[in-house]
Amino acid sequence: MYERMQSFSKAELTLIHNASMAILAQNGLNFTDDEALEIFKSRGFKVEGSQVYFTEEDVLSALETAPDRFKFHARNPEKSVWIGRDDFAFAPAYGPPFVVDAEGRQTVGNMSDYEKAVKLVETSPVVDFNGFKYLAPGDIPAETSYLDMIRAALVLSDKPLMGSTDSKTGAENTMKIMELVFGRNYIDDHPVTMGLINPLSPLSYAHEMSASIIAYARRRQPVIIHNMIMAGASGPIRLPGLMALVNAEILGGLVLAQLVGPGTPVIYGSNSCPIFMKTAGAEICSPQSQWIFSAVTQLARFYNLPCRTGGSLTDSHLPDAQAMAEGAMTLMTTIRNGANLVLHAFGILGCFIGISFEKWIMDEELCAYMRGLTQKYPITPENLAVDQILAVGSGGTFITRPETAKECRKAFYQHKLFNKYDEAGWRKEGALDLVAKAQKTIEARIGGYRQPDMDPTLVKDIDALVAKMKAGPH
Fold first, then answer.
1. How many Cβ atoms sit within 10 Å of the Cβ of residue 15?
2. Phi/psi at 186 (nearest 5 deg)?
3. Which pLDDT does position 473 carry in this prediction?
4. How many CB atoms lie within 10 A of CB 402?
5. Fewer CB within 10 Å, N or C, the chain?
6. Mean predicted confidence (pLDDT) in 30-58
7. If we measure between CA atoms, which residue out of 160, 183, 168 comes closest to residue 265?
8. Is 102 helix (H, G, I), strand (E, B) or coil?
9. In a 10 Å sphere around its CB, with 0-12 CB exposed, 13-18 middle and 19+ buried, how is residue 106 labelled?
10. Contact indicator for 233, 36 with CB cutoff of 8 Å
């Protein structure tokens, strides 16, 4: 297959690997968490103060136990998803503080907004699992808000869900809640939640992040080790050098996860990007960003690891043409290059600053389109349909063929939002633009939402455990 985006040779990937090994051996990574430092010391790593040094042997040994694919289990087994190899999954926005309306006005998100997002996850045929922090609810205490978010995702949806990595307590409490819902023995052998780990670039791990790796890896629950290094600010301006730094940080975190829990699934991830030189902020959507997303997936395959990158990302502050164009370009790069988990697939605006429910619905159309893009059509004698072509002959039509009638509803992707009518048909349908269609879709979805079944006793037990955790140390 001919590909115009840069594909790295094995020799080039090895050069990046060797550069990362030099960084890990000569500078190492800074860990501010005492427990992490003790784990490294106990396993014979060179540790000087808070600086931990890694050999190539350390990295290769950890890679041997990290799986290349795993099943992410849902409360409803029919909604479990596979992540890795040829499989990929879509998840929504993660982390924005604001909800953004169709005109770009920002308001602080609240718990009602959060529950609305969970209901959109549950009613979507495209969203594969709950992404934990769609937004940061500003109307409840910040130190315990993760408990309300996890509770909402568990009770209002039966799809898989991500957990908290905001603190050591948050990570440990996530494990306790999952243990209550799924059973202690079950979660030790089945991934039922997932934590997002962000290194502190360059070359550091804050104590919350390393402590969360430890808490998740002890129960062999998956972690996404994912950095966002800005080329020219927190990383080198030259992109190959940026990738060496990206790679070193991720591999160091992977080593810690495998020391604690060999076999813990680790997803290799980065949304690194250039710095926007006019403001010194991140420019998450640019040709260089797409190059980085492609490079990340190639490095993940080099190490036989599942990969997370991209999403429907945009620097726009409202759901406009820029938002859709940038989102489509990033999703195309992400999916075609082979990412296995696409976080921020739905609703992100303004370089992660806001979530737009209108854009969420529009992004669902994009992601469904991307799934259609990956459909394979076997080249077989039956599919070549020579007998049909000869039967119709010159100047005939295939629209009256029985094969066309039989397959017309499933042969092609069926658009839910994008207009495919002529001008008269478009006006007959209401002459709506995408934002207006998205708003009508949201109303219908939320209005038609039905809460999935859960044992009322289990709901009470979850509520009691959450209340106990809120009353305890945070």
1. 15
2. -65, -45
3. 74
4. 8
5. N
6. 98
7. 160
8. coil
9. middle
10. no
